[in-house]
Amino acid sequence: xxxxxxxxxxxxxxxxxxxxxxxxxxxxxxxxxxxxxxxxxxxxxxxxxxxxxxxxxxxxxxxxxxxxxxxxxxxxxxxxxxxxxxxxxxxxxxxxxxxxxxxxxxxxxxxxxxxxxxxxxxxxxxxxxxxxxxxxxxxxxxxxxxxxxxxxxxxxxxxxxxxxxxxxxxxxxxxxxxxxxxxxxxxxxxxxxxxxxxxxxxxxxxxxxxxxxxxxxxxxxxxxxxxxxxxxxxxxxxxxxxxxxxxxxxxxxxxxxxxxxxxxxxxxxxxxxxxxxxxxxxxxxxxxxxxxxxxxxxxxxxxxxxxxxxxxxxxxxxxxxxxxxxxxxxxxxxxxxxxxxxxxxxxxxxxxxxxxxxxxxxxxxxxxxxxxxxxxxxxxxxxxxxxxxxxxxxxxxxxxxxxxxxxxxxxxxxxxxxxxxxxxxxxxxxxxxxxxxxxxxxxxxxxxxxxxxxxxxxxxxxxxxxxxxxxxxxxxxxxxxxxxxxxxxxxxxxxxxxxxxxxxxxxxxxxxxxxxxxxxxx
Length: 522
Hints:
By secondary structure, this protein is mainly beta. The chain has a domain at 181-225. It contains 5 helices and 34 strands. It has helices at residues 26-32, 181-200, 204-228, 436-439, 442-445, and strands spanning 39-40, 49-50, 59-60, 66-69, 84-87, 93-98, 101-106, 112-117, 123-128, 141-147, 160-166, 231-234, 251-256, 273-278, 288-291, 297-302, 309-314, 319-323, 330-335, 343-348, 354-359, 362-367, 373-376, 391-394, 401-405, 408-413, 422-428, 447-452, 457-462, 467-471, 476-481, 495-499, 505-510, 515-520. It is globular. WD repeats lie at residues 290-332.
């Protein structure tokens, strides 16, 4: 009999509800449960060995090689706490965003190299460009970041993408003198406070509130002033492992007017667009604009081998493939699954012959040249694929595909010569069955990230924030696990696999307790 995947402490349940949970939120879950699995990287009945460094089992937080706590800003409750992590392609720099501020550190020494200020809202996405164009002689690194956009009640309005030019040490090449906001606010209040007090009987507390208002306004003005000197433009990146930088490193794509259309239609000029710009000078006229989707675009990516080929998936029920080598760009294929569904994500094969596209109740592989459907995951009869299978990763050198499907990680090999369209559930939680208490916890059982870190190593992240790694070639596995009772206030899929000068591998992760951890793998 399979183990219960989540161990329970009974006193969180309301005895007045026949021992069924009165509620289950993230905090209750994090305090109460610890991850257990029915199957962990098992393929064809074979389970990989625990890596020697794990001492025969999972390693809990606190057992890492070393860690670094995130630096806090003055945390504003109006902001979403969505911290991000990015590691430079050469592994020498690590960038961490906490709300609106990005801090760049040396990876080896963890010394702060610089603070990047320019976003008005929290940074929601951040990554290093895989290469710097040859024409960009002054910059050693390009760091790209996106503001969180308009979240309404959270008062975040920053649909801005910034390209930061960093030198070999990770310091910004664009330097703008910051405002002395505290001094300016004090001078402003000193000038008017006596009149407000004597002539208008304004209390000390009210004057203090007025100073805070001045301070906030000056901080916003300071950020806008810094942003004006940076290379920035309006737009957002796609989700679900979108690749917005062309393979030659010269182009960048962004989505504009990308709001959902919940009902009815809207004018053509306000429909979602894919805009391709020069990464050297994105403020000049766009290289190409693609329009055709009539609802929000979830995923948009360049082909990994051809800078003129772009694919997209949208909530209008269609996938599209575009050719930007013509003027204007042309639509190569418009793919419509049988039922109009919400389409979520995609992934190109390593050499761009095929594309994997996923949407509600639809996961299939198509030919890039013809648009013909070649394989469908729905034809696998061994298990049911989750309706919303959105997180997918195609191996960088082979035709092995990993998918996060609800409480399972799937390994799909559609072109396997011995077993065509072979698919296996390689990581699973036990089924919740009909137990109401267990069904309530299904959302916490889901896997929310899966990615090939290189041709051999696959990583997955559980909703409760533990990391699972598998080296397929060596037959080894690792689990870096959140301890029972550990609370956390963020979910991040930020991670990287680095190799030291001694050849030994290190896994770097950003975890829910707001620590960056380094785990020895060899």
